[in-house]
Design goal:
The complex is a heterodimer of chains A (111) and B (113).
Chain A (H helix, E strand, L loop, with lengths): L4 E3 L2 E5 L4 E6 L6 E7 L6 E6 L5 E4 L2 E5 L5 E6 L8 E9 L4 E4 L3 E6 L1
Parallel strand pairs in A: 2-11
Antiparallel strand pairs in A: 1-3, 3-8, 4-5, 4-9, 6-7, 7-8, 9-10, 9-11
Chain B lengths: L3 E4 L2 E4 L5 E7 L5 E8 L3 E10 L2 E4 L6 E7 L2 E6 L8 E8 L8 E2 L3 E5 L1
Classes of the chains: A mainly beta (111), B mainly beta (113).
Chain lengths: 111, 113
């Protein structure tokens, strides 16, 4: 069974601060995806990283895939209240080629 | 219209009742999935279907059944609802590779009393 551990589980910060959330596994994934979920809605895909060491930027969000394709991080610069939500990482791979989700990091950005 | 539509959005039902949650998609994807989300437990896969004739159990399929009526439609049934099936249920779709992201519906909040 492939497991993804996300940390921290909860994060509450002030607007303008920087933050990093982590997604770790002992398993290798062929790709890793990050989703954001807002209350009352389904998760929405932010990014997919495929190559070990890959870095992708989406405005103030920077995503990195570990060299060994076992871990990933999401860094947010100058957080805004609109960044509030549940951030989920999901690894793709394994014998059935399905996504395995972490339990998420609940981010609250206070004004 | 949303790419993935789930009905109903909210439902309260009694223990022992049969209930069906419906999902339809306009993405033209072959693959469809049903997940449940519980606080602290994340998203757990109930059933998945790689095409109309291919249906597979996920990690928590006991107490649930599914039907893939067409490429665009995938329904989830609780044959005899119990309180610990109270959860947020999501349907999702992906293309045939599955590796470039899932598209989720807005979810069904189910309460079993």
């Amino acid at each position: 069974t492939q497991l993804l551990e996300q940390s921290p589980q909860f994060l509450s910060i002030q607007e303008g601060e920087n933050l990093t959330v982590y997604c770790n596994s002992s398993s290798v994934f062929s790709s890793l995806q990050w989703y954001r979920q807002e209350p009352g809605e389904g998760p929405v895909l932010l990014v997919t990283v495929v190559t070990g060491g890959e870095v992708k930027k989406l405005k103030r969000l920077t995503f990195q895939f570990g060299d060994a394709r076992k871990d990933s991080s999401l860094h947010i610069t100058a957080a805004q209240t609109g960044d509030t939500g549940l951030y989920l990482c999901a690894g793709f791979g394994g014998s059935n080629y399905k996504l395995t989700f972490g339990k998420g990091t609940l981010l609250t950005v206070n004004p | 219209d949303a790419d993935v539509t789930q009905t109903p959005r909210n439902r309260i039902t009694k223990t022992g009742k049969r209930i069906m949650l419906e999902c339809s998609q306009t993405k033209g994807h072959d693959r469809m999935y049903w997940y449940r989300q519980d606080p602290g437990l994340g998203l757990r896969l109930i059933y998945y279907s790689f095409d109309v004739k291919d249906i597979n159990k996920g990690e928590i399929s006991d107490g649930y059944s599914v039907s893939r009526q067409a490429q665009a439609k995938f329904s989830l049934s609780l044959e005899s609802a119990i309180p610990n099936q109270t959860a947020l249920y999501f349907c999702a779709t992906s293309d045939s590779t599955g590796s470039y992201g899932y598209t989720f519906g807005s979810g069904t909040r189910l309460t079993v009393v």
